[in-house]
Amino acid sequence: MTERFLIFWFAVSALAVSGEIPPYIKVCEQSVQNLSACITDSIEFLRPKLVEGIPEVDVPSMEPLPLEDLVIDSISPGSRLATNITDMKVYGASKFEIQKLVATKSKNGKTFRFQVNIPQLRVEAHYQLDSRILFLDLKGEGPFFANITNYWFDCTMKGNKVERDGKNYLLFERMRLNVVIGDVSILLGNLFDGSPVLSKATNAVINDNAHLLFDEIKPALVGTLEKVFTDMSNKITLKFEYEELFP
Q1: What are the structural domains, with CATH classification, of the chain?
Q2: What is each CA distance from 110 to 41, 107, 241, in whole angstroms?
Q3: Angle at 59 between CA 144 and CA 62, to 5 degrees
Q4: What is the mean pLDDT of the segment spanning 200-228?
Q5: Among residues 24, 120, 208, 213, which is most buried (max CB within 10 A)?
Q6: pTM of the model
């Protein structure tokens, strides 16, 4: 998600160079005294556009934010988690709160460090499950819902200046995310063929151990986010020369 913020900032720089500055763009010049504060202000100024997206620079909407499918197969003492989570959509990402942003520059590129809080995220998806969690054997498929509150993450993105066909571009290394989750609630629909009594009891047990379940899901989820958003950032930065992005 953090990378989406960077994408919008890179879009700002590119549009400023072309002279086509929409009213929702607040430009940060390279010579600004506090670049980090200026970028933060620019992101806040752009917040209304995050829901809509910016099609002219191929930046999609953040509401909802689609994620790649997750395939999980892990074994731990007394448990086995085998599930596919598909058609994932995340709601609430545009409500992010930037707690800290540090932008540093070097001779060969840029490094951005973010600390961000998202008060609440809602995840909707489809699951296929064949697992044993604690003493429960779970098999089935249906709608997956999760509510996540106090979602914190630190993100580091390092961009290197690279030369291609005699021109300079900014290419990001794979981003690194450190995620901390506050509270998690999970609902699996259609368990036990929709039996209300068994489904309610099973979901209660799952939510009593929601952090254990989410800890199994988190590595695959974080890995997906790191890859998707690094690719998205490079999709933008490699369209424009380095000197255009950072005049």
Answers
A1: 35-245 (3.15.10.30)
A2: 19, 8, 14
A3: 30
A4: 77
A5: 213
A6: 0.73
> What tens digit of pLDDT does each residue of 57-83 get?
666 777 888 888 888 777 666 666 778
Quickly tell me which residue has 């980090």 as its tokens: 36
The type of residue at 38 is C
Q: How buried is 156 (Cβ within 10 angstroms: 0-12 exposed, 13-18 middle, 19+ buried)?
A: middle
Amino acid at 143: P
Q: What is the maximal distance between C-alpha atoms in the chain?
A: 67
Unique residue bearing structure tokens 């892990």: 74
d(CA 213, CA 152): 18
Interior angle at CA 239, CA 236 and CA 242, nearest 5:
95
DSSP letters along 147-164, please? EEEEEEEEEEEEEEEEEE
